[in-house]
Design goal:
The protein is built from two helices and six strands; from the N terminus they run αββββαββ. It is an alpha+beta fold and 102 residues long. A hairpin with a 2-residue loop joins strand 5 and strand 6. The protein binds zinc ion (ZN).
Length: 102
Amino acid sequence: MSELSADLMDILVCPNCRAQLALDVERDELVCVGACGLAYPIKDGIPVLIVSEGRKPEKLVAAEPEPEKEEEPTPKPSPDDEPTIAAPGLTEDGGELTISFS
Ligand SMILES: [Zn+2]
């Protein structure tokens, strides 16, 4: 959580498009309310108003494929769906499986 004074917020503008910045308290970011919509990180209470440090707008980020994020659970066939095959010689005894092919 960062707290920036209202005076500071008035002075700060987006270095990319000169629009005003809105404080995103949850993310600790200053979000450009203008055309570019970049979100600038606040590090140790100091806003980093560098275009290259700015985070791209959500829309553009969402448009790109994001691997390893909220993957849909792949439906795996449960053993119950498989046909039950009686396996003589396969016994479960005390948690140990004993398989004999005799
Ligand atoms: Zn901007």
